[in-house]
Amino acid sequence: MEKYAERRAVGRRTGLLTLLLLFFAGAGAFPASHAAYLSSLSFKCQEGYVFSATNTVFSVDIAYLPPEDISVYLNSIPNNVELVSIKKVTYIPPSSSKQGYGTHVEITVRFSEPGSVKLFAADLETKEGFFKIPFPTVRVWANMQLLKPELSVSVAGLADQAGPLNFTVGSHIGYTVKVKYASSVRSISYEIPENSVFIEKERLMDADDGQPLTAEFSPDFQDAVRYDWQPLVAGDFELPPVNLVVLSYSGNLVSLPFPSIKVHVGDVPGTPPDAAGTDPALPKAFAQSFMEGQTVLPEDRTGGSREDAEMLAALYKKELSSFPFFDAEMEERQAFEKKLGRNGLPPLRRRPMLFFLIAFSVSSAVAALILILLKFFARAAFSLVLGVLLAVASIVYGSGLSRTLAVSKGGTLYPIPEAGLSKGGDLPPASVLFVLKQAGDWYYVSFNDTNGWITSDSVILVR
Description:
Distance between the termini: 132 Å
Strand content: 25-35%
Largest sheet: 5 strands, antiparallel
Shape: elongated
Oligomer: single chain
């Protein structure tokens, strides 16, 4: 009996040891030095970017210890940090992990100012004593709602972009417009500079269509649009400005100012310029670049004659001189353009309407003066307000008549006002242009979103 009892006791001890081994095998091998393990812990920031005035979460997973067996304290914090909460939940490791069940700790704080910040270590209390759990140093950015979009320009091939940039006539000056702190670019506009070839190469941050913000924050400048500018004459210029309207992270539309970047363009060494200031060795290359970079004529605008141009110019003059409430002149002009295969312009603003607005504005002002003399002050105030409104309407309406309209007789569009330079493209007769300026016997015109120079005897001005 004694031997049986002894064997039974040994069996019980063996079984208990086996159960303990099985438990630790299932939960993961307990660290040889648990204190060393706890001393090695550190918090991790859960946010990709940290912003001021926004909750930031730091977390740490503590294996083998359930939430009720630990206490976490943040006894000291920097002045610009607010403690929001400390949370403990049961930590369940992934099936592939060898760690056992434990505690997941989250400490949520809020930074009041941007900058580089490191929190003081948190205190961890367990049955084995006290331990310090450090935090990583984080870069705190200003709150996204407060960040103002910025623009910068990078000129290709130049490491030092301070001071005037030096190039020679015909050089291809590539530059990239960059944007940061913006969720999207809503519009891009620019004026094609004179005496040069200007090509938009690529849009990399295209305008959106008003959809909800999806762009992730980035602290770096991002490429928005690339250009190639080829000046055709020597002189001192500025890099052609580009106007970008972007959507800030706060949802506001912002027009970004373009920096003033001075550019000095010198003559090509060893090749004296001709009398017009144009390098005779470059016309062919310039003309080729001009044709590659500008679409001068759509395929459906190849017809027309000089007689058609004279007739179209006469119809435009007739429409300009007509009263806007009668559309017979406009319909006649549009029918003729349709016959020529032209799209034509929308209804024009007409001179009689401008004279009508000016006359009524003056009449209202005179009536107001008379009513004041007669001491009808209420009626005088009404007439005065009406006169002011009509004056403003006159200015707005007249702005549409400020551009000089012209019709091409058929001619050649040049990148610079020099007939000796190879042409940039042909303008068929009866093409509608806008004259932007005059230089001697040359007109600088806008046609089909393309600017260039044309001789004055090749157009009929619509006055």
